[in-house]
Amino acid sequence: MSAPSLVFGWHDWLTLFVHFLMLSLMSLGGAISTTSEMQRYLVERQGWLSQAQFADSVALAQASPGPNVLFVALLGWNIGLNTGSMAAALSGVAISMIGIMLPSTVFTYQVAQWAHRNRELRAVRAFKQGMAPLVIAMLLSTAWLLASGGGKGGEHADNWPLWLLSAASCIVIWRTRLHLLWMLAAGAVLGALGLV
Amino acid sequence: MSASPLPLPPSPPASAAPAPHAEPPRPLSLTDLFVSFTLIALQGFGGVLAVIQREIVERKRWMSNEEFIEEWSVAQIMPGPNVCNLAMMIGARHFGLAGAMSALAGILAVPLVLVLCLALVYARLAAYPEVQGALRGMSAVAAGLIAATGLRMAAALGKNVLPLLVCGAIAVTGFVLLALVRVPLAAVIGLLGGLGCVLAWRGLKP
Predict the structure, then answer these.
(1) CB B171 within 8 A of CB B154
(2) How far apart (Å, rounded) are the C-alpha atoms in residues B121 and A60?
(3) Which of A15, A35, A88, B105 would you label with B172, given CA atoms 20 to 30 Å apart?
């Protein structure tokens, strides 16, 4: 449970940076798909983060506004804090975010520009239309894994009130124009009261 | 987009029909992009996709639902965070590289500061079970939100070149393989995505 305390040299930061650079190119279908690999490397192999720090980083980024990839910033933040200083925490944020964003951004930008220039090509149209059903399957699977608490085993797998909340919010958001914030607030209140 | 006529706005809530050759709405400037995506990101608790679809397609009308799912399929298949890819692509469409960077900065900058503040606050509150519970409840809602977005986007499949039945079969198989069997994503993209592309290729007129 307790956070490890680390002594970090520049080569450790470099190792971390290179690791995120590699994960960036592997993150097909979103950064969330590399979460289990990050957990294996940062927590189990290097011991730079405690399991609790890792899980809290993911959950906090989930609860906070903005793209979920920001959990990577929190991982860097916590690694920096474990070395003992606020300055290190901020460099951890910079190193991990630049690492996770840079390669994928450059690559995707080039591909997207090419695909847009050639959007009338039969192959490009076939790709975009042919992928559409799978894209929806990927979204629904992400939702499923999130609802079951992280997939493997799933810490909420048999927490049925939580499932009910997910299903109810899905139907409300799908079928009505109620603002998303109301549903999130409702979820927070139900959770805080211990009902789910 | 495709040469087929698609003058219908995706889901017009009884709006006045636009003039036949009216320019579709578009972002006005780099600042507009930055501010729009910052606001979108700030509404996106538990993931931004649901908000992006609502704002870009249904409110601002920068693209139709069909265009959106096509862009989204590129954004989702490419490496990198989906919504960041998508923001970048929308920005690039209108203002090139500068637009891509403005949109990306918009979606990341302010939320990054916020999440760090939240982490500082959370460090003091983590011990309270109520806080843990609230976080759990919000992430359950976030899961429902992502599923709802998938269902909304499924409406676009009606205009797909693939027959609805084929789309449904691919989507269901994909879900079972990814969520229940836990087959690695790359394999599923290769198999089912490849199948969809080949079928779509054959369905499209050369």
Answers:
(1) yes
(2) 11
(3) A35
pLDDT tens for each residue of B127-145: 888 888 887 888 788 888 8
**Cβ neighbours, 10 Å, residue B200:** 24
- Determine, for residues A77 and B116 on separate chains, whether the beta-carbon distance falls below 8 Å: yes
The answer to whether the CB atoms of A133 and B162 lie below 8 A apart is yes
User: Please, what is the average pLDDT of chain A?
Assistant: 85
pLDDT digits (tens, 9 = 90+) for B35-59: 999 999 998 776 687 788 888 888 8
**pLDDT at position B112:** 95
Give the integer Cα–Cα distance in Å for B71 and A80.
36
Residue of B nearest to A66 (CA): B41
- State the average pLDDT over residues A83-112: 93
Q: Report pLDDT for B15.
A: 43
pLDDT at B196: 93
CA distance A11 to chain B (A): 25
Task: For residue B13, give the 3-state DSSP assignment.
Answer: coil
Is the pLDDT score of B66 beyond 80?
A: yes
Q: Which two tokens stand for residue A45?
A: 């192999």
B201–A152 CB contact, under 8 Å: no
CA of A119 vs chain B CAs: smallest distance (Å) = 7
- Contact across the interface for A170 and B114, Cβ inside 8 Å: no
The two three-digit tokens of residue B50, written as one number: 């649901």
Cβ-based contacts of A146 with chain B (< 8 Å): 139, 142-143, 146
Helices B129-154 and A51-63: crossing angle in degrees, nearest 10, is 60
Chain A residue whose CA is closest to B141: A166
What was the ipTM of the complex prediction?
Answer: 0.79
Task: Please name the residues in contact with A71: beta carbons below 8 A apart, sequence gap of 6 or more.
Answer: A31, A35, A57, A58, A60, A61, A62
Minimal Cβ distance to A141: which of B45, B46, B179: B179
Tell me how far apart the alpha carbons of residues A29 and A17 are, in angstroms, rounded to a whole number. 21
Read off the tokens for A171: 């139907």
